[in-house]
Amino acid sequence: MAKFQRELRERIIELQISLLACIARLQVQTDDEALHDLRIALRRLRSLLRPLRSEKLCLALEQAAGALGDANGPLRDLEVLASELERRGQPLAARRRRAHLAQSYARLLEGLPLRRLLILLDEWPEDQRQAVRSGEWQAQSKAVVRYMHKQGRQLAEALRDPAHDRHRLRLLIKRLRYCNEAWPQRAHLHSAVPKALRNAQSALGDWHDHWQWLQRLQTEPDLAPCAEVWRERLQQAEADADLAQQVLLEHFPEAPAQS
Q1: Long-range interactions of 160-164: CB distance < 8 A, separation 24+
Q2: Spatial contact of 152 and 170, defined as CB atoms under 8 Å apart
Q3: Mean pLDDT, the chain, as a whole number?
Q4: Closest listed residue to residue 93, CA positions, set 244, 198, 202, 222
Q5: How many CB atoms lie within 10 A of CB 224?
Q6: 29 torsion bin: left (phi>0), alpha (psi -120 to 50), beta (else)
Q7: Phi-psi region of 74 (alpha: psi -120 to 50; beta: other; left: phi over 0)
């Protein structure tokens, strides 16, 4: 167990460093990918901790990372929309949204979710050592294997549900894929599965973006010039997602058994 504890602590410190670098880039606004990279670091942190949520320290840190992810999710959606509007020849609509983003970055950097996460990350190494010394630490690597089996069963069931919700399916695929990336030596997925998960997530992500942009039309009339092409792209994305899901079915022929 000591090796697992050390590995987890080292991985969390590495991700803390990545987060701090992204925050510094976001503060000075040196590039357009700072928020995207911040979300990737948060995703990796959450994926690392999610299988270990029965451990109080892991649960608290994972929830703090999730709260920050929820806080910046709408900003990332707006960044993606602004870039799409620029590609579609709508610079004025794109500028309106980028102007809003500049103000929102500052609120995010000054907000409670970020402050709370940074405090927990600073305290993590000593808090973990204290939990081990006191006998409170129980997290073990086999929890990762159990979590992956559970996620695999849920995905297998969702893929076979004729009335499946694409939003939920996308979430299940993301959880399985990202946990595999966080714990590649313990996830035990077939070597072809990560690519199939990535392709399905990409197709469903394209579908989700266009679905979301079309929903915005109800309250953001300046998006109307893009409506027709978005509806066409939504239909294509649905077809692409269906094909990607069929590939996944080959890798999940039946719900994995509990180990």
Answers
A1: 160/249
A2: no
A3: 91
A4: 222
A5: 11
A6: left
A7: alpha
Q: pLDDT at residue 100 above 70?
A: yes
How far are the Cα atoms of 143, 215, 228 from residue 212, in angstroms, in the given order? 35, 5, 14
Would you state the pLDDT for residue 1? 61
User: What's the burial of 158, exposed, middle or buried (CB within 10 Å: 0-12/13-18/19+)?
Assistant: buried
Torsion over CA: 88, 89, 93, 99 (sign): positive
The structure tokens listed for 100 are 């809003």
Query: Over the Cα atoms of the chain, what is R_g?
Result: 20
Could you say which DSSP state residue 255 is in? Answer: P
Calculate ∠ Cα 222-33-24, nearest 5°.
120
Phi, psi at residue 62, to the nearest 5°?
-65, -40
Asked if the model's pLDDT at residue 200 lies above 80, the reply is yes
Orientation angle between helical segments 34-49 and 2-28, nearest 10 degrees? 160
Q: How confident is the model at residue 254 (pLDDT cuts 50, 70, 90)?
A: low
